[in-house]
Write a structure and sequence with these properties.
42% helix; ATP hydrolysis activity; alpha/beta; Methyl-DNA_Rec/Restrict_Enz; ATPase dynein-related AAA domain-containing protein; ATPase_dyneun-rel_AAA
Length: 522
């Protein structure tokens, strides 16, 4: 027998009492609680008091099992949906964002310093060299988290998928309490089990108050928990905000996750124009921060962009114009402001997205921070030149940048800058081209012809020709406009001294079009 679906839903409705708010405060508490319970379960399984979750070796296997243990706390169904706040915020992802959050923030930081996790409300875990243990004073911290308000509901919720050897009997609530306590005591380490279990008899009273069936023969289905009131779902649409819809299995995202989990703090998306560099940087950024755009900052480098725009500069001191004081005062700029935000929220990653990285002079723009953005020098204090304040770069800042290395109008990156970034090369890809055309609704007869042209263009191009030029191409008129007002000039410049190559590319493009449309090509 299993606990009934209605009982589990009833218990779930009470979990929100851990925090009366419906925002970030509750999410942070649930995040910390799920990591504590996952740690406790693995410690019990391994008969140890410390987990080695380092990348590679046995740590890699333990990481997978850690994610499974997190799922026992927050998962809703077998499709990867889970609760982010024990309320109406539901997410999708089979790793429950553990890989892109806990592993790449606090756990990764523990390579360089001891970490007490989380940072707010009180510590629950101790992290050292990617090894995790339960913090000695966790019981006091748990009370600050509000565990006392949800002990009974939490224990019922944690047993939602367990088969229980029991039948309908007059003393069913009493026997069910015994079985629930038994599951909790066998799953979690003794100290954690004692901390989350209510006093004897409390669960029985909770079950007695429930007027519907307590058990059922079938494994419960509570997916409809996600059918929350429409008012709770309402959000203000802002077209500037990217949607967190990049699949977990996306190969570029997986590569970024692997790099971050191994301590990378800077990743360059490199490739010719039209290869989705900016799209990927933003999609991956919004995925890593779980849709919280306030944890993303975006800038674009250009020849006039400077240290004073990016780090700190001098601005007019209006209050002292006539008072005989200093006419200018130092002011924090984009990167320092992001550092301030990240330093106050060390349990979460903050992302800086830099477009056109090499169009400015990165070494001049970063200045002395070129040293301190390196992972080994994060959290090490240094002095700024204008304000003379001592600052450090937090470990939980990641830089995602885009660069076209074939742009002849910019200089190559120097070796010192290159050494601080991992590079992901994004090349023109036929499958992505095909997806774009199919999504736009282009007829299949055209798609095959476009692919042939695309292959010709990339064979002749010295550095590649991107697939995104064909975004939103749904009819023949789109192809006429694309050539006459964009591609013609691009290929004329590309093959300025290669007349035969330009002719071959143009002929390949004309083969896409009907006879009437060809006459409109210039």
């Amino acid at each position: 027998m299993y606990l009934s679906s209605n009982l589990i839903k009833y218990a779930f409705s009470g979990l929100g009492k851990i925090d009366p708010s419906t925002g970030k405060s509750r999410q942070e508490k649930i995040s910390a609680l799920r990591h504590l319970l996952a740690t406790s379960e693995l410690l019990k399984q391994e008969s140890t008091d410390q987990l080695d979750l380092s990348v590679g070796g046995q740590g890699a296997e333990l990481r997978k099992r850690f994610i499974e243990c997190v799922g026992k706390v927050v998962s809703i169904n077998e499709s990867g949906h889970y609760t982010n706040d024990f309320n109406a915020d539901f997410q999708a992802g089979y790793d429950y964002k553990v890989g892109s959050n806990f592993f790449t923030t606090r756990l990764a930081q523990s390579r360089n310093q001891d970490i007490f996790y989380p940072g707010r409300y009180g510590h629950l875990l101790y992290l050292q060299q990617e090894k995790v243990s339960v913090y000695d004073g966790f019981k006091e911290s748990l009370e600050k988290y509000g565990i006392g308000a949800i002990r009974t509901e939490l224990c019922v919720w944690l047993v939602r998928n367990e088969y229980l050897d029991i039948d309908e009997t007059p003393d069913l609530p009493l026997r069910l309490e015994s079985l629930i306590r038994n599951v909790i005591e066998h799953r979690y380490s003794d100290d954690i089990a004692q901390a989350i279990l209510p006093e004897v008899g409390v669960i029985e009273a909770f079950l007695n108050d429930f007027s519907e069936d307590l058990i059922a023969e079938e494994k419960p289905d509570f997916s409809d928990l996600m059918n929350v009131d429409e008012k709770q779902k309402e959000v203000n649409f802002d077209p500037r905000i990217l949607i967190d819809d990049l699949p977990d299995e996306d190969s570029v995202f997986i590569t970024v996750q692997n790099l971050l989990s191994r301590g990378s703090k800077g990743i360059l998306f490199s490739g010719p124009p039209g290869t989705s560099k900016t799209w990927y940087a933003l999609k991956i950024a919004i995925k890593i921060v779980e849709g919280d755009e306030s944890r993303i900052e975006r800038v674009q480098f250009h020849p006039a962009y400077s240290y004073e725009d990016f780090i700190e500069g001098l601005v007019s001191n209006d209050t002292n114009v006539t008072g005989g004081g200093a006419l200018f005062k130092p002011k924090d700029k984009v990167f320092l402001n992001l550092c301030t935000k990240a330093r106050k929220d060390k349990d979460n990653l903050y992302i800086l997205v830099i477009d056109e990285f090499s169009r400015g002079d990165p070494s001049r723009i970063f200045g002395e921070l070129l040293t301190y953005i390196e992972p080994d020098y994060r959290e090490l204090e240094f002095r700024l030149p204008y304000s003379e304040q001592m600052i450090s770069i937090p470990q939980n800042i990641v830089i995602l940048a885009t660069m076209n290395p074939y742009d002849k109008s910019v200089a190559d990156l120097d070796a010192a800058m290159e050494r601080r970034f991992h590079v992901i090369e994004l090349a023109p890809k036929v499958p992505l081209l095909t997806d774009l055309l199919q999504t736009a609704g282009l007829a299949n007869e055209y798609i095959e012809k476009v692919v042939k042209f695309f292959n010709v263009a990339n064979r002749l191009s010295p550095h590649g020709f991107g697939h995104t030029y064909f975004k939103s191409m749904s009819e023949e008129e789109d192809f006429i406009l694309l050539w006459n007002h964009k591609l013609k000039f691009l290929f004329e410049k590309m093959f300025r001294f290669q007349g035969d190559a330009f002719t071959e590319v143009k002929d390949a493009y004309l083969s896409i079009l009907s006879e009437d449309a060809k006459e409109q090509i210039i």
